Queue: 4 jobs
Job 1
Amino acid sequence: METAGTTGDIGGRGADAPDGFAELRAREFGYLDEGGHTYLDHTGAGLAPRSLVMGSAERITGGLFGNPHSESPASRASGLLLAEARQAVLRHFNADPAEYAVIFTPNATGALRLVGEAYPFTRGAGLVMSLDNHNSVNGLREYARARGAGTAYVPVSGPGLQMDERRLRAALSARGRGLGLGRGRAGGRSRGLLAYPAQSNFTGVQHPLEWIAGAQAYGYDVLLDAAAFVPANALDLSRYHPDFTVVSWYKVFGHPTGIGSLIARRAALARLRRPWFSGGTIYAVSAQAQWHVLADDEAAFEDGTVNFLSIPDVAAGLAWINGIGMDRVHAHVTALTGQLLKGLRTLRHSDGTPMVRVYGPRNADAARGATVALNVLGADGRIVDERVVTRDSAARGISLRTGCFCNPGAGEAAFALPLHRLRSAARKQLGSLEDYLELLRLPSAGAVRISLGVSSQPKDIDTFLKFVTQTYRDRVPGAAGLAARVGC
């Protein structure tokens, strides 16, 4: 079995080797070409390298590991590997262990839930969010609402669907109505929570990390959703200091699934108040007297028994991706994104009209990641039903994503849905998705998402561009199985 270092060196050919990632694909992801697959959904999930899966199996079957809530030899072995995994996460993000703690969760969503349920929302400490957010971040507003706190959304605008920085400053400085927040901290208490993504999972827009310090200057804690950002970008927590950062590791290196992390500043953790306790989170508890004492470290937030057989794979995965080099991964996917965007611009019907409409930044030089959202257009300019694209691409062995990608705000901005129309839909009880689409007057309620990663190659992009051209050029939606409306 190859080690992470050998794999990362990509055959020892050096950073300038033009075919280094092709060799990596053949060695670690050969099952793609062996099975005739074109995988274009890296924002949905990274792919598992063969060496990581094999290494995991050898570790588990070659040792004895038990529940870490004990002092037995098997438990100590698990505890040691868990500690090593925490250290590996901190090293990867260049985070000072004195400032940051690593809490293992089932995924980024689980990390967000930990923050939402325990954050001290009040009428004077509300929630500010980007309209461009995953639904797992949007769900924080329910915790805020339950405690009487206001919520403000900051719009995204322009052809690139970037967040409106002027409106962000207005919300943070409490000029927006309904939050009742002041500038700066009072008695060490936060004035609220700003939650936004480092990279949009819909458009690939990368929102400025400089906003972290800016929001903190207004007295806010900052929650950074880094799930779509960290698979191909370095995040330096010695330079940027979000109070809470959430990630899902399967998006970075494919294996294991079911493991995420909340990387939290220890000072911010101390302000959280958990609404319950569980096995593994307390030092002492009484059933009859009804008191408990929470642990004063990461254990206070890791409910029950952590996934002690899989969490060590995070350390192995980080060694694997760092062996390749995040700078090289970034350069690789950036070049492929440029190829994809350039190719999309060339897709034309016979009369010269475009075959696709791209949402978000139109070139790889902009602040964007390797996630590209688009709709296929028929010869009459109408959107081709995304469900048809799903069906047709699957028949060609292409795995891509369609829908709204659990990001309704970015979708509403992309399709320019007015607020009054969305509110009217909320007041009606309709019988089907098609009824809602009719009410919202949507030509489409979703898009096609192409996302690239470490295993991607130029031929994957060529396959997709050829598929679009051969399948939809000069065709009209509604004819030969093409419909006019889509679902999300």
Note: The longest helix spans residues 326-346.
Job 2
Amino acid sequence: MNISFEIVPRTLDTFEKQYAFVQSLDSGINIINVPDIQRFDIRSWELATRIDRRKYRFVPHFRAIDFKIDGGELYRIIEQYQLDNVLLVTGDPPEGLKRSYCNTDVVDLIRAVRRRFPALNIYAGFDPHRHGLQHECHYIQRKADAGADGFFSQPFYDHRLVELFAEHMDGLETYIGISPVLTLASQNYWEVKNHVKFPKHFKPDYDWNVEFANKVIASALENDWNVYFMPIKVDLKKYFERINLGQVVRQDYCLDQLEQFV
């Protein structure tokens, strides 16, 4: 089982503080995921030199709308920063259309990058709230057929929905998104902006979100899923000191011990 931790590069100082926090955890976190957000000055791939890639897999995001398939810029970045992993997403057009963007389809981009870099680990995203289950699973399969090795999801808030998608993604390297929602304002944002339907028993507090995260981790261990933490506007220490990452460390230790006798 893998656990990914997303660090949003708002500023270099903010990134360094969150990265230091991850390093301080005695946990099973082994992937650092960095989104590429246009309104920030730091691009995701520029942080390749600031992460210990012997300890963490580095997965920078790339937005399809920023690159032309025949432009060569994305290929140059992958080679220059010696990237082993990328996450290719569609990306939202810039607000007010103040910046130019490309009409590149992410499926086409996945296919082109796979042709250029056969050994590269290419990940894509999926959103359990965007469309119905059948439509989203069809979209996932198109990306897999184009060359995506695995998928990182938008956050889940209903374990029943996790189980439904996990069943349909059998055989694909899947990372279940977890992002705590701790205020009514944040809950409203997710409902309006991302069309999330929270379960009736949901509460925007630490207790509910910690319990849900621990339940997902336990299910991931049992079902060979992976977990993707997106801690937005959260007290990291207060949240993660109650997250049961120790069970992942214990499992990995037991597997290592078992391999010695195989």
Note: Residues 3-259 form a domain with the TIM Barrel fold (CATH 3.20.20.220).
Job 3
Amino acid sequence: MNVPRVLPPLSRWTAGGATVQVGDHTVFVRHDGPPDGTPVTLIHGFPTSSHDWAAVVPALAAAGLRVTTLDLLGFGESDKPRRHPYSVLEQASLVEEVWWQCGIGSTALVAHDYGVSVGQELLARDPARITRMAWLNGGLYPDLHRPVLMQRLLHGPLGPLLAPLTTRRRFAAALRAVLGREVADADLDDLWASVARAGGHRLAPRLLGYIDERRRHAARWTGALESFPGPTLFVWGPADPISGAHVLERLRVRMPRARIEELAGPPAVGHYPQVEDPASVAGALTDFLAD
């Protein structure tokens, strides 16, 4: 099956951004849309980068939004220190520093996967700063998170031995196992390139520490999610085996006033809605963010 690519080439995406200095590290940041547009910040997931959003950003920018994307530390074009003690708390501070350097005050926030934990920490710190919040598939409730076998292995004691053995082929197989729709080989090539740059695939065991952080901060982060007073949207792929339909069941009970855009297809979308069905994600986000 010849699946057309949806993401622009990674090289074009990175050429449109720049790096900023955050402490001892350089961080890749990109801005799209009119400088005076309504601010929105997009936070990517594990193990990829801001390039995940590249097929969605043009629609948001065309709607008059000022879109900020960045690669978190250890991801994409940002620095990837080998022995760094990565944490969600540090990533949230990194986002706050980028906001400060870029003159961003209040902003809407859109988060996916690993990024939802960063988003929850930002909400817990300063909910008044976030004007509205949109969530894509991620472990909002740690007890519902179902990591796949490869994640469990990389997070375990054998992780440091297994991570260097990760190849493009193994990466693609693991990614396809959590998708509901086919993704073009060219897109998978670029997703892998963002992971593998500067040996980033070796960092997986350290980055996966977020699984433990989610458990430690569960009450605080869940409370921040459920008590957020602003408009909330969930754009969700129900075919995701990690954080799919079973998460939506709880969200409908706990957050009945939130909007839910379930990408049920057919075929139903899986773990990467913004890559599997960027048109639907862009439409849902544009309607919500420009409301």
Note: Residues 88-101 form the longest helix (14 residues).
Job 4
Amino acid sequence: MEHKFGAAAIIGPPNAGKSTFLNQILGQKIAIVTPKPQTTRNRISGIWTGEDAQVVFLDTPGIHRLRGKMNSFLLKSAWQALAGADVAVLFLDAALYADKPHVFDKDMAPIKKELAQAGAQLLIAANKVDKVHDKRKLLSVLGRIGEMFPDAEIFPVAAINGDGLDGLLEKVVSMLPEGPPMFPEDQVSTVPMRFLAAEIVREKLFMELRQELPYQTTVEIEHWEEEDGLVRIAALIYTARKTHKGIIIGKGGATLKKVGQSARTELEDMLQCKVFLQIWVKIREGWTEDPGFLRSLGFGE
């Protein structure tokens, strides 16, 4: 039997469940997930390996119409992933469109044209169907998706619990070209451990902070040292405004302490060893509009 190998770009609007899908099929967490939209900032590669196929899934930032240098970098990253993929899997929030049908056309406007120009094979995952209790509304959503993308096969799925993902994965594999595996079967991602550590700290910030503040922060790992079963990590949180620093630290350092404890617990579980995590907060005004700094953090890659 021939062996398949190729890349599949996971694209779609913010908060459609792309990262949840990636973590679910890999059986472990490599992409952070929060209830807030626009959590994923960098393109993250996850490697799924089966008996007769290996798929490199490219999780991408949500496609949106927000302005600014950082948002421009995010969109560029998403479209670059699409250009280099054998298959595009468009993730859509079926529950959102069932409740708010008018949002569908707004979300599809910046997507349909780019998909047509890319010419990639397209599959559509209508996600979060478990949250749609009125099946007439679900059928209406699926009908609208079918009208907009008549040549694409639609898969109703619930990425949070894995429903429908086997069929979607099987179809992705069937559309890939023949080729040998390019990665060891036990490798699940191409991103370095330092990147995952920074993402975990950033995820905890997203979960603790309110409103728009998380979008004005980013995390960089300044130091990583492994010694005698202990990993020492120094993380630096950048925030764009002076007024935000105190909020991130919290009264008596409570917020930052909670972020650090939660991140350390997850890092120890991931690394299977003791972790000593130190976190500092630094003000860097205008970092979201600084192209050089954004590139140094890996944005747009």
Note: The chain has a mean pLDDT of 85.
